[in-house]
């Protein structure tokens, strides 16, 4: 029965036996598991996304195996994927990269190039692990994003400069905006600490000058914020 379905879906394409189709899907699932493990080892993780990475190559492989040259089925599948894209939230750049990685593995397996799919997937996984081990692209770990809330009557132009000179190597004001119906200001800074061990002391002195209003300090790692 399944062989008839594969043959009908194939149209003018090559006939694929049931055993071959299962073999392609199993290979895609194995590569999906390896891709998911590399995702878990190379940064912040979402457990649901990690599980999806295991299944995604198999799903792509099965879909492409069923299409196999049938133009009408291809158009229908393209429309279905478009609906999924516009009904889903955009992930981080890392998540999007792993989605394409998993789809590449599934697509290559569906064409029967199992050895090539395995080799290129392992090569890309090794690159990811190496870059993560080297900390490539992480930047200066002393860099911080600082947000300070002050009352509207407080002149922010020079009130914190003394503290910045004392605790930071460099700093710059990136944004000023009003909040709470104009009764408060939010100041945003990008800065580099001289000594990470004195971060609490730095924040405590800021709180003494801004009336103990909200102060937020943390790292801003691009591409990881949308998890």
Oligomer: single chain
C-alpha Rg (nearest Å) = 26 Å
Order of helices and strands: HHHHHHEHEEHE
Can you give the helix content as a percent range? Answer: 55-70%
| Alpha carbon gap, first and last residue | 42 Å
- Total helical elements: 8
- How does the helix and strand content classify structurally? alpha+beta
The profile of the biggest β sheet is: 4 strands, antiparallel
Number of strands: 4
Low-confidence runs (pLDDT<50, min 5 residues)? 8-12, 222-227
Give the amount of beta strand, in percent.
15-25%
Q: What does this 3D model show about the protein?
A:
With 227 residues, the chain is α+β, with helices and mostly antiparallel strands. Helices cover 56% and strands 15% of the residues. The chain is built from eight helices and four strands; from the N terminus they run H-H-H-H-H-H-E-H-E-E-H-E. It has a four-stranded antiparallel sheet with strand order 2-3-1-4. Helix 2 (18-41) runs antiparallel to helix 3 and helix 2 (18-41) packs antiparallel against helix 5. The longest helix has 24 residues, at 18-41. It is elongated.
């Amino acid at each position: 029965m399944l062989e008839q379905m594969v043959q009908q879906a194939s149209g003018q394409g090559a006939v694929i036996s049931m055993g071959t189709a299962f073999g392609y899907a199993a290979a895609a699932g194995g590569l999906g598991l390896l891709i998911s493990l590399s995702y878990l080892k190379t940064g912040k993780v979402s457990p649901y996304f990690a599980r999806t990475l295991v299944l995604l190559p198999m799903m792509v492989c099965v879909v492409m195996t069923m299409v196999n040259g049938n133009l009408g089925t291809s158009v229908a599948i393209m429309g279905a994927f478009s609906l999924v894209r516009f009904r889903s939230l955009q992930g981080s750049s890392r998540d999007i990269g792993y989605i394409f990685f998993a789809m590449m593995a599934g697509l290559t397996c569906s064409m029967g190039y199992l050895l090539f799919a395995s080799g290129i997937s392992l090569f890309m996984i090794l690159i990811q692990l190496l870059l993560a081990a080297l900390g490539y692209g992480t930047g200066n770990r002393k860099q911080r994003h600082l947000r300070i809330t002050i009352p509207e009557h407080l002149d922010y132009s020079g009130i914190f400069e003394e503290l910045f000179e004392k605790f930071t190597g460099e700093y710059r004001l990136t944004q000023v905006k009003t909040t709470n119906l104009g009764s408060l200001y939010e100041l945003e800074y990008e800065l580099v600490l001289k000594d990470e061990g004195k971060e609490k002391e730095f924040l405590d002195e800021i709180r003494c000058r801004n009336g103990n209003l909200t102060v937020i300090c943390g790292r801003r790692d691009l591409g990881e914020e949308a998890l």
